[in-house]
Design a protein that fits this description.
The protein is of the alpha/beta class. A hairpin with a 6-residue loop joins strand 48 (1240-1245) and strand 49. The longest helix has 46 residues, at 368-413. The two termini are 36 Å apart. The model has no long low-confidence stretch (mean pLDDT 94).
Length: 1536
């Protein structure tokens, strides 16, 4: 078994309702296939079934088993969960998946390639190494002679032989018309011997071990020879007139045409202008006339589709007279006469559905007169329907005439046709469609046979093919009119076989063909499925399953003429076809032939190194690309003899299986007919003279050239030359490059094709020069097709002979100087890393090929080796082609992981992230790709996000790749931003600079690939080091947990200017640095950005509310405890008026204009104490107060210090006392939109309820803080959502805080049990336990909206428009706003669940789920609300008060961070209910999280946005990644 880092793993993502039955997935044995859940399935209980068998069990196509799920990171989410298959057996396998009651929600197939082994040592012959040669078996002679005849294949370099069928042939002598599928053709045995299958098997095995050659043969399932003895005994195995009565009209027509032939031969139609010798268009017109005027009127085919009107009318009349009624259960009251086709297809045999008749034709009364009237209407309608059938049949007749005439044209008039001459019994007018095993009769006598089943069961339909037909439809089955319309191109020597739906329908045939298949699989390594596109799929499946029982690594090839790649895939998937035959002869010119080479295999030169674990990508079928197939017309006739060699060379350079047909290499100038050819192939004789007819040697045709090409094809595939580049040099010259990505050797073959005969077509003697990058090591081969003196071609009577006047001049493995095809080359240097050799062509005549072996320039080769050596620390795949450095730079002596281990998480922020604004603060910026766009981050993630889309598709044309090829700017930029840093970051910069120094000295076309390799290695090493610095929750977490945890690195950084006010010098764990501005020592604590890119730098980076909503998720859960403590204490130092700043502004420019930030801060202190070991010690930590009094100027650190518990006490005490002040510098200086009244800030505790209330209608003191900005719409200075009064989340947060300090006091950790308050000159004391109790008792009564008009707690029942919810606020200046449905109550549910009754909470959560939950976030307002608008456009300037200048920021758009609280609340209260409810809730949570995971994976920012527009649509005004969005989703995973 391969070590895990080398094992190839492919991941197939399952998505709901995704049926991939027409998508091809190819895998190799030894691969692991993992099934993972896409977003639409995550959270559901999905079962994946497959028919891939358990180890040691036989494969049974219809037996499926469920796969077990693996949970690599526990079960908290479905992002990493997978089930897998270790693929060890070749074949086609099906999978499907479903959940709940849906058994099949989607599915598809996988095809596992066989492994072919040859030689005495059983070494592997890779599929791309295959070179096959087809032999018409009947031309091989006696079995004793096969060795010498097949030796031609061995000596021409082929490693696979395809034999046409070896069975006894039918009387037509066609290779594919078999009289007996089970017997070895007795012709292969000389007199006195009787060879059998064992003898062939012994020869095949000898070829495999001694010649390293695989042998395959055809299987023909579709038909048997018309003279097969067994089909006479078992006529049920074909389509006859008993088992397929729908063919009776077609048989009648067929017999009429047979008799027409006889009459034409006898000259009976000459008066009508139809002679036996059809040579002109007017004769064709006469055929049409005779068919229309004589034949069709005589046989009256329409009668087979009509009703006997008299008989049906009598039957209907009898029913009416007996008072019969229509059966309504059948007609359902629908009128309309239904005709039932006679299943026996007798003349006028169709019947009427009498229920439809009785429903449609109802007499006015039961009187005889009315019944007679009704029957008259019935008769009239039947007559009309018969006429319609007549017209339809006439359309079929016209098509039949067209097809008959088309056949006559091809067989007798067409230039490319066989030109059969006069009509005779041997060459009838057209081929018969049915067998007729009886003597001559008149047509009338033949028609009488239709009533004799024992006779008509022997009238069997011939097989053939139908132009443009649906290959998935059987054209002989009922419903098809192919035989009636004469659309079949018929093989008159073969009978089409009728399998039915399964073995029970025709037991003899299935058993017979299974035996045939088993004989074939026993003695051959593979099969070619003849006429595959017409073989019923279920039949081929059954037979191949039987074959694979005997030979598991069965190699299956087929030729498909479906005209559609998707339909091809159906066959490849269902049958497990290993290779599809592709024809070079389908190309009309060299350009198209080159395109086919590129299409059928390989990746582009300079392709990226793909990870071992990667998505399973759809592919095209593996190609077997043949220069000519045994069915193709002769290329010498279609092109020219000179084209044989260069076209063969183009095919040989393809990165797939290739091959040819015996005769091509010997320049046989005609098609070797599978039907008519009876001569033998010549034998091999290495010293055969050029003029020899009965022998073949190296001087015959292009044999010597083909040997060199086949050897080269094998070597290229075996040595990993898997990258392909096709260059159309000019109209006739094509250059193909095959490149090895590990050694960077290339072979470049330049082929000058000759699609036109040079004797009649002018070829320019001048060929444009070529520029080949690198150093030409040798000329692998140069070969020219040249004329020699020889006899003109005469077709030999005994042997299949070729043209003698052409041969190949060939030289192999010579130096450039020895070449006669090219002129001496000039070496030019493009730049320091690219050496280019110019090649001029001297004798690249039509029909020539030259192939160069090219290495990198020696210096570049050495540098690539060193690069690979240093990259091999990250993956063993770089070891091949690597060389150690003689004089390595010091920084490269250590593994990169050792350097990375010294980085802090703050360093990782610089290395991985930092958006444009952050980088600009340091005087830099993000890299901009000219003509494209700037990277999202200056750190590695900026590039990694882009390369993640480029790499899987090998998109080497992408602007980033172009930029890398054009210059070193990106290399220099990537390392220089790190080199300016200090410590370990600079060391990482040095490591990158050293690697890039090597990179600059390799050819430019390779730079994108190696740059990506260095980038990925550095990035993954950085991630490993990052996660090691985080908590065990992250280290052992799923991919989703880790993605979200990276948000901590993304958002937490140290800028050029300290964002936090200084902490007390008495604290341990505070980082210091030398100021980059003043040079003095200063603190450098990390701060949390609110979001990127808008809130990332300067005074708009840090916000109190955002920081403390995000702090638990991004810092406490990730293990960044000291940094979290420092942020808590820094903000504590800025407390003023009992509040924490909204905008921090480094403390000195703080704005104290929000009511909720202080409560989020207190919640974070509580979370810190509960989460961090010895967390309560933070309460005693010194806080350096910047504003010890409300009016003091900002103090220097250390002037006034207090323990944190005193600062907490002050915040609580000030709220109990009541906060009221006017903001400093009130006016346009600090807020250009706010009205004057808005600068007045108030917060107090309601003495009746204990709720924290405050604000007014001109300010917005909670997170929903949009202030109107539009003069035009007259909303300027008006908050969209003032949420004054008691906002529900503040009530919840304050309850949580008060409950917590009560608990702390009881444990002796908080010295205060209440607060003294001074009001109106009097002092009183409020105990915290009393306050806690007061909120508890007041909450449900004041916030629950029951919807009951008699609810005594409801002050404004007239305002209730949604019941079963919690109010958004209590006591707002606009009472309507209290009753709006928003997601804020879910926050209170999480921080203070004790406030809620379980039933009320659950009801409200269900309403929120139905009304507010979006794909990624929560709607900020009920969509039923009159001011709801889900699309946020901050630039909109119009007259709409509710929309202008983004006034609806929190009036509908879907914000992400509340979804975390909603999901946590859902899980908390679901646990209080029955298990089924909890399981459903977990499913919902996982399903929602899966959409976040998908967004994170796809987002170039690797974050979750601030908000989306309605239904998850992208909002361009949102931050692309927001701290609290990431944090609250991570908290859900922690809760799971």
């Amino acid at each position: 078994m391969l070590p895990q880092h080398l094992k190839q793993i492919r991941v197939l993502m399952l998505n709901e309702k995704e049926n991939l039955e027409r998508t091809l997935f190819r895998l190799e044995q030894g691969f692991e296939l993992q099934f993972r859940l896409g977003p639409s399935l995550q959270g559901r209980r999905v079962l994946v079934h497959t028919n891939y068998p358990l180890d040691g069990q036989p494969f049974k196509r219809h037996v499926f088993r469920a796969l077990a799920w693996n949970y690599p990171s526990g079960r908290e989410d479905d992002s990493d969960k997978y089930c897998s298959l270790d693929l060890k057996i070749a074949g086609s396998y099906q999978y499907y998946f479903g959940y709940g009651v849906i058994e099949r929600s989607g599915g598809g197939y996988i095809v596992v390639d066989p492994v072919l082994r040859v030689g005495t040592d059983n070494h592997v012959l890779p599929l791309d190494c295959v070179t096959i040669q087809t032999y018409l078996s009947k031309c091989l002679g006696h079995l004793d002679d096969w060795h010498d005849r097949l030796c031609v294949a061995k000596e021409t370099g082929y490693n696979m032989i395809h034999f046409t069928p070896l069975q006894t042939l039918g009387e037509s002598r066609s290779c594919y018309s078999l009289a007996d599928q089970l017997t070895f053709n007795p012709e292969f045995s000389p007199q006195g011997r009787s060879y059998g299958w064992e003898d062939v098997g012994a020869l095949v095995e000898r070829l495999r071990t001694e010649w390293n050659m695989i042998c395959i043969t055809d299987v023909v399932y579709n038909h048997t020879a018309a003279n097969s003895a067994w089909i006479q005994e078992h006529p049920e195995c074909g389509y006859n007139l008993v088992n397929s009565p729908h063919l009776r009209p077609a048989w009648v027509l067929d017999r009429a045409i047979v008799h027409l032939t006889t009459r034409v031969i006898e000259g009976r139609y000459e008066k009508k202008g139809l002679p036996a010798d059809i040579t002109e268009d007017k004769h064709l017109q006469a055929v049409r006339t005779v068919m229309r005027e004589d034949i069709f009127p005589e046989i009256k085919l329409w009668e087979f589709f009509q009703v006997d009107v008299d008989s049906a009318t009598l039957q209907f009349k009898a029913l009416l007279q007996n008072g019969a009624q229509a059966d309504r259960s059948k007609t359902e009251g629908v009128k309309g006469l239904k005709i039932i086709q006679d299943p026996e297809y007798r003349r006028h045999g169709n019947t009427v559905d009498m229920d439809s008749a009785l429903e449609t034709f109802v007499p006015n009364s039961a009187s005889a007169e009315h019944v007679e009237q009704c029957c008259g209407c019935f008769r009239q309608r039947l007559t009309q329907l018969n006429e319609e059938q007549h017209r339809l049949e006439q359309q079929h007749q016209e098509q039949a005439i067209n097809c008959i005439v088309g056949n006559v044209v091809y067989e007798r008039l067409a230039e490319h046709g066989p030109k059969l001459g006069p009509v005779t019994r041997k060459d009838p007018l057209v081929t018969r469609y049915f067998t007729f095993p009886y003597g001559d009769m008149t047509l009338e006598e033949e028609m009488l046979l239709l009533d004799q089943p024992e006779k008509i069961c022997h009238f069997l339909a011939h097989n053939g093919w139908v132009m443009g037909d649906d290959p998935l439809r059987n054209f002989a089955e009922p419903g098809s009119n192919v035989y009636l319309r004469r659309e079949l191109v018929c093989w008159g020597d073969s009978v089409k076989l009728r399998y039915g739906k399964g073995p029970e329908d025709c037991p003899y045939l299935w058993e017979h063909m299974k035996n045939y298949t088993e004989i074939t699989a026993t003695h051959f390594h593979g099969v070619r499925l003849d006429n595959c596109h017409s073989t019923p799929l279920h039949v081929a499946e059954f037979m191949l399953d039987a074959a694979r029982v005997i030979r598991p690594n069965l190699y299956v090839i087929a030729e498909l003429f479906t005209g559609s790649e998707l339909v091809d895939n159906v066959f490849v998937n269902r049958l497990g076809i290993s290779s599809l035959v592709r024809e070079a002869m389908s190309a009309g010119d060299s350009h198209e032939e080159g395109r086919l080479v590129y299409r059928y295999g390989g990746e582009p030169v300079g392709a990226f190194v793909q990870p071992s674990l990667r998505p399973l990508m759809p592919t095209i079928a593996h190609a077997m690309f043949l220069d000519v197939t045994h069915d193709n017309e002769c290329p010498i006739q279609l092109r020219s003899a000179l084209d044989s060699l260069p076209s063969s060379a183009l095919v040989s350079m393809a990165c797939c299986a290739t091959g040819s047909t015996r005769g091509y290499d010997e320049l046989v100038p005609h098609q070797i007919s599978v039907v008519k050819e009876e001569r033998f192939y010549p034998k091999w004789n290495p010293s055969a003279p050029p003029a020899s007819v009965g022998e073949v040697g190296p001087q015959t045709g292009i044999v010597a050239g083909k040997l060199a090409l086949n050897k080269l094809h094998h070597e290229l595939a075996a040595q990993g030359f898997m990258q392909v580049y096709v260059d159309q040099v000019d109209a006739d010259v094509v250059a193909i490059t095959r490149h090895c990505p590990s050694t960077h050797q290339s072979v470049v073959a330049v082929c000058r094709t000759a699609f036109h005969d040079p004797k009649t077509h002018h070829y320019d003697p001048k060929v444009p020069p070529m520029f080949i990058p690198g150093k030409i090591e040798e000329v692998v081969l140069e070969a020219r097709t040249v004329e020699r003196k020889a006899e003109s071609f005469v077709k030999d009577g005994k042997f299949i002979n070729g043209l003698l006047e052409y041969t190949v001049e060939i030289k192999e493995h010579i130096s450039l100087e020895e070449s006669t095809v090219v002129m001496p080359a000039a070496v030019t240097s493009k730049d320091r890393s690219e050496f280019v050799q110019e090649i001029g062509f001297e004798k690249l005549t039509p029909g020539s090929v030259i192939a160069f072996r090219v290495s990198l320039d020696p210096k570049a080769q050495q540098v690539v080796g060193v690069l690979r050596y240093y990259l091999s620390q990250f993956s063993p795949k770089y070891r091949r082609g690597s060389t150690a450095d003689d004089n390595p730079p010091e920084v490269l002596l250590k593994p990169l992981s050792q350097i990375m281990s010294k980085l802090t998480l703050a360093d990782m922020n610089v290395l991985l992230f930092r958006c444009e604004a952050e980088e600009q603060e340091d005087g830099g910026g993000c890299y901009s790709i000219p003509g494209w766009e700037s990277l999202k981050y200056a750190g590695l993630q900026g590039l990694v996000s882009v390369m993640a889309n480029i790499r899987p598709n090998n998109d080497l044309g992408h602007p980033v790749c172009a930029n890398l090829r054009q210059g070193d700017w990106l290399l220099d930029w990537t390392c220089s931003r790190l080199l300016t840093r200090e410590g370990p970051l600079a060391q990482v910069g040095e490591w990158l600079a050293a690697m890039f120094k090597y990179l600059k000295h390799i050819p430019r076309y390779l730079i994108p690939c190696y740059f990506d390799a260095i980038l990925v290695s550095t990035y993954t090493t950085a991630l490993d080091a990052t996660f090691k610095l985080m908590s065990s929750f992250v280290q052992s977490g799923s991919s989703l947990v880790r993605h979200l945890a990276l948000g901590s690195v993304q958002m937490c950084s140290v800028g050029r200017f300290p964002a936090l006010p200084p902490l007390s010098h008495k604290l341990d764990g505070v980082p210091y640095r030398v100021s980059p501005i003043s040079g003095a020592k200063e603190q450098c604590c990390v701060s949390l950005a609110a979001g990127l890119p808008h809130f990332s730098a300067g005074i708009f980076r840090c916000w109190g509310r955002d920081t403390f909503i995000a702090l638990r998720g991004l810092m406490l859960l990730t293990g960044r405890h000291t940094e979290a403590r420092n942020i808590i204490l820094a903000f504590a130092g800025t407390l003023r008026h009992g509040l924490i700043p909204n905008l921090l502004g480094e403390g000195r420019s703080a704005r104290y204009n929000c009511r909720d930030a202080v409560w989020w801060w207190l919640q974070c202190i509580q979370d810190y104490v509960n989460h961090v070991p010895q967390g309560h010690e933070i309460l005693r930590c010194p806080v350096s107060r910047m504003y010890p009094t409300d009016d003091s100027e900002p103090l220097q650190p250390g002037q006034v210090e207090q323990p944190l518990y005193d600062v907490i006490q002050e915040a609580l005490q000030r709220h109990l006392e009541g906060i009221s002040y006017r903001e400093r510098d009130a006016g346009s200086k600090i807020d250009m939109n706010m009205k004057d009244e808005g600068f007045s800030v108030e917060a107090r505790v309601d003495p009746l309820t204990g709720f924290v209330s405050g604000g007014n209608r001109f300010n917005c003191g909670t997170w929903m803080d949009k202030m109107g900005e539009s003069d035009r719409a007259r909303n300027k200075g008006m908050p969209a959502t003032p949420r004054d009064g008691a906002a529900v989340e503040i009530v919840g947060l304050s309850k949580s805080a008060v409950r917590w300090v009560v608990e702390l006091h009881s444990k002796g950790l908080f010295p205060y049990d209440g607060a003294k308050i001074h009001k109106n000159g009097t002092e009183s004391f409020v105990s915290y336990s009393q306050w806690n109790q007061q909120i508890q008792e007041s909450f449900e009564a004041h916030f629950w909206v029951s919807g009951d008009p008699h609810d005594p707690n409801e002050k404004h029942p007239e305002l209730v428009h949604k019941k079963g919810i919690y109010k958004d606020s209590y006591g707002a200046s606009s009472a309507w706003c209290d009753y709006q449905l928003r997601p804020n109550f879910t926050i209170a549910m999480v921080v203070a669940p004790e406030l809620f009754t379980v039933e009320h909470a659950w009801t409200a959560l269900e309403v929120a789920e139905k009304k507010l939950l979006g794909p990624l976030g929560m709607k900020t307002l009920d969509p039923d609300d009159m001011v709801y608008c889900g699309v946020y456009d901050n630039s909109l300037e119009n007259d709409d008060y509710n929309l202008a200048k983004g006034f609806n920021y929190h009036q509908g758009p879907e914000w992400l961070w509340p979804v975390g609280y909603f999901l946590r609340a859902k899980l908390y209260f679901a646990k209080k209910k029955e298990e089924l409810v909890y399981n459903k809730s977990v499913t919902l949570v996982k399903n929602v999280l899966s959409k976040h995971y998908t967004h994170l994976e796809r987002s170039p920012w690797k974050g979750l946005p601030e908000l989306t527009n309605e239904n998850g649509q992208y909002c361009s005004f949102s931050c692309e990644t927001q701290a609290w969005s990431l944090a609250t989703v991570l908290e859900v995973l922690f809760n799971l």
